[in-house]
Specification:
46% of the residues lie in helices and 14% in strands. The protein has helices spanning 3-12, 18-21, 45-50, 57-68, 94-111, 121-127, 134-137, 155-160, 165-182; strands spanning 29-30, 36-40, 77-80, 115-119, 142-144, 147-152. The chain binds uracil.
């Protein structure tokens, strides 16, 4: 499948009802040959309006963390578990996640990243393991199939609770160190 075919498939997708309430599809953005893929939960209001992931307040904070460890947003690929915004930003339902994961899997096949970073609990529970505990297990790097995987706090959680910011910075530095050692980024 090509990128164009996949984006068309997502645009036409009717596997769940979120396509009826979204403004725009939020397909994903960034370097399609990226070594590192960030996966969030679902588009919020700004993302839905602009059709681009992580452009609202949480996205601006994510940009700062990327910058703080010398990673440019253009170097990475950023996507979400869901490609359409859930109404009023409610948590994605399991059946919506099931429906949308087929698209993310195709994106991963096309990108073939070396590392996948889950942004927050929902993404980590979906991509790493169902009982992932973000407060205990954030920042741990583990090999899973062809990828090294890790999860960090969701930037929205940092906006609600500034005491998590120190851990986030440490986790981002660990990701940077891994990339320096094993990936030429
Ligand atoms: N939160 C997410 O999980 N994804 C976005 O794209 C924006 C906010």
């Amino acid at each position: 499948m090509t990128w164009e075919e996949l984006e068309g498939r997502c645009r036409d997708c009717r596997k769940c009802s979120l396509c009826q309430t979204r403004t725009n599809l939020v397909f994903g953005t960034g370097n399609r040959q990226a070594d590192i893929l960030f996966v969030g939960e679902a588009p919020g209001e700004q993302e839905d309006l602009q059709g681009i992931p992580f452009v609202g307040p949480a996205g601006q904070l994510l940009d700062l963390y990327l910058e703080s460890v010398g990673i440019a947003r253009e170097q990475v690929y950023i996507a979400n578990i869901l490609k359409c915004r859930p109404p009023r930003n409610r948590d994605p339902l399991p059946e919506e996640q099931d429906a949308c994961m087929v698209h993310l899997r195709e994106q991963v096949k096309l990108i073939r990243p070396k590392m996948i970073v889950c942004l927050g609990r929902i993404s980590a529970m979906r991509l790493i393991k169902p009982d992932f505990k973000i407060t205990r297990e954030h920042g741990i790097l583990q090999k899973k199939g062809d990828f090294v995987m890790t999860a960090v706090y969701h930037p929205s959680a940092l906006l609600r609770d500034a005491s998590k910011k120190e851990d986030m910075y440490k986790d981002m530095k660990r990701i940077r160190m891994y990339l320096d050692e094993y990936v030429d980024i």
